[in-house]
Structures are given as structure tokens and as C-alpha cells.
Amino acid sequence: MMQNQKIALKNVKLKEILAMIDINLISELINIPGQVMLKSVKTSYAYENSKRTDTVSSQTLTVAFGTSLADIEILDVTYVGQPILEDNITALIGSMIELSDITLAPIANMKGRDFQGFSATGLKLVVARIAPVSENEK
């Protein structure tokens, strides 16, 4: 899409608009974490002909962030980058990681495997890259 060309209201696609938003600009309005503590990892696998494959489709990271125990937030983040291998998950649990290449997406309402529309409130973070935080960066 050209930068000067506006989209007609009837043709707006929320997912595309959210993907275009500059995270640095919207972080003034929405609390988007950078450094977080990794609490758990849930791996989702791809399916082919109704059978699970060994291919990782995405991973859900449960992370904690905040400045003190009083304002801590727990958040599930969709991670679509290079899969975290099972051997490395145990080592990363409880450590600080940096989230980068973040985009926003609407939360899908699902019933089983059937899409029921998008949630009226809330957004999810989709992260493409994570990196361990060194002791000097904390």
C-alpha cells in the first residue's frame, strides 16, 4: 500500500492496520513490555491431514513484567520466531529475556478449532525475536 493512499472505511482490515502500527509510537498509550521474566513455554505443533507433525507452528510464552511485586503483570505472548528447543526451555525459565520485533494482533475467540470472531477488548503481542538479557542490561 502506498503511504499517501487512504483505505476506504468499508475496506479496512483490522489485522492489517494493527500490523502496520509502529510499536514505538503506540507504546506511549499501551503498556508494551521489553524485558520480561520467562515463566513457561507452551509449544503448538502443525497438523497435516488431522495428524500432528513435529513442525512447531508457534509457541506461547507466559511472561511476567513490572517494576515491583505490587504492579506485576502476567501475559501470554505468541512467539513465532526460531522455536525454543526443549533442551533450552528449562534453562530459560525464570530468566530475563528481551522481546523484539513485536506486532499487535486481535485476540481470536475460538470454540474448539472453530473461529468465533475477534474479542471486543484486548490485543495480543506477537513476537518474532527473543534474546536473553545479560546481568549488565537488567
What structural class results from the helix and strand content?
mainly beta
Instruction: Tell me the major beta sheet.
Output: 5 strands, mixed, barrel
Beta fraction: over 45%
Query: Which sequence of strands runs across the widest sheet?
Result: 1-2-3-5-4
Give the helix proportion (percent range). 10-25%
Q: Which regions are unreliable across 5 or more consecutive residues at pLDDT < 50?
A: none
Short description:
The protein has 138 residues and is mostly beta strands. The protein has three helices and five strands.
List keywords for this structure.
138 residues; 3 helices; globular; five-stranded mixed barrel; mainly beta
What does this structure look like?
With 138 residues, the protein is mainly β. Helices cover 13% and strands 51% of the residues. It contains three helices and five strands; from the N terminus they run ααβββαββ. The protein has helices at 14-20, 23-26, 86-92, and strands spanning 35-48, 51-65, 73-79, 96-111, 114-132. The chain has a five-stranded mixed β-barrel with strand order 1-2-3-5-4. It is globular, with a radius of gyration of 17 Å. The model has no long low-confidence stretch (mean pLDDT 86).
